[in-house]
Amino acid sequence: MAQNYYQKDRETMPVEDLKKLQSEKLVKQVKHVYDNVEYYRKLMNEKGVKPEDIHGIEDLHKLPFLTKADLRDAYPYGLLAKPIEDCVRIHSTSGTTGRRVVAFYTQNDVDLWEDCCARAIVAAGGSNKDVCQVAYGYGLFTGGSGLHGGSHKVGCLTLPMSSGNTDRQIQFMTDLNATILCCTPSYAAYIGETLKEKGMGPNDIPLKAGIFGAEPWTEEMRRGIEDTLGIKAYDIYGLTETSGPGVAFECSEQTGMHINEDHFLAEIIDPDTGEVLPEGEKGELVFTALDKEAFPLLRYRTRDICVLSRKKCSCGRTLIKMAKPMGRTDDMLIIRGVNVFPSQIETVLLNEGYQPNYQIVVDRVNNTDTFEVNVEMTPEMFTDKLSDILSMEKNLANSMKIMLGINPKVHLVAPKSIVRSEGKAVRVIDKRKLV
Ligand code: ADP
Ligand code: ZN
Hints:
The protein is an alpha/beta fold.
């Protein structure tokens, strides 16, 4: 397949040139942050490092980390590196794991962010011939604005639907010939489910590709969405702290997401010791924003666990790739001493023919963790015969035990009884934290 790029020079730049570019940008950026952000200047002083000590990316490890706790401490203006008059936008995290964080953008920051999203759309086959339906939430959440801006840059006809009102999503999609859908994977699955209920199939909708991200999703879930919507589904990654979606995006090879390394320098560290790990090892992803002006985080610890790879990609891009994040350090549940990621449960469900409609409930009773997984039966397997349900529950619990090394109590529930998400899905209810 002929490859298209949005910014070919950057996306296919020889790695040596890319590293040189990153080094030049890093030196400038560290000085900008040191001069303008008192909070980070203090952290650097405490570590005994000055901007003059940073000559290139080989010195990156000398800089202190920033964490989400720092962002909360510095809320709202403490990490701002530009006068408010120079800023044109604020966004905020979804608050999945606690108090929201706010991020600021100059016009240049917005521009570069939209370029990153445009790269993702073009990599998914998008061009000015496409109609791009943006069904990520608009507003403080970065998903809607980011893909909206990227879609404009590519020249797609943009349908700014925002999330929700699924019937209208389907109607506009068909009436207005939407070819690319952008939303969270859980919302894409829900749109697919609604389509089926209407007695419609992939041939009744014009979509050819989807750009889905903002939350973890498995390969199995990808295949499910691709089948129900009749599309190729591309992953996209980002976080508010680094601007939003578009930090990394998938190409046609679908074996990990290319990081827009000319703007974001990535490292993998051991989350316990902070030590930088060699390429190919699993650890916490850390980003340094090389071009951001208003909110330029250096060595920001994302808490996302993943692996980087510089293996040659058939799409021709030289940008390093990140594997699908397998969860966040704070997503990981420790149940009776065993590490459990929701993505592992999702993998089992999809392998066993269930849909990814589930909720994990953890509690502590008499000093022992309880671990329950509520799973929806699909309409095809639905039965009210108790003995059948019990045996299905037992089978599923066994498969989960094999994957996790710990035995959950599985409850099968009626189709459609677990609440659907139009944005990021809530998979875990951990009642232990409330005690
Ligand atoms: P919050 O931390 O409140 O959810 P954001 O809305 O900025 O804030 O979400 C960013 C986080 O979403 C990332 O750190 C990551 O954990 C998750 N995320 C984003 N895109 C993906 C993706 N494609 N795959 C897995 N996780 C993702
Ligand atoms: Zn590629």
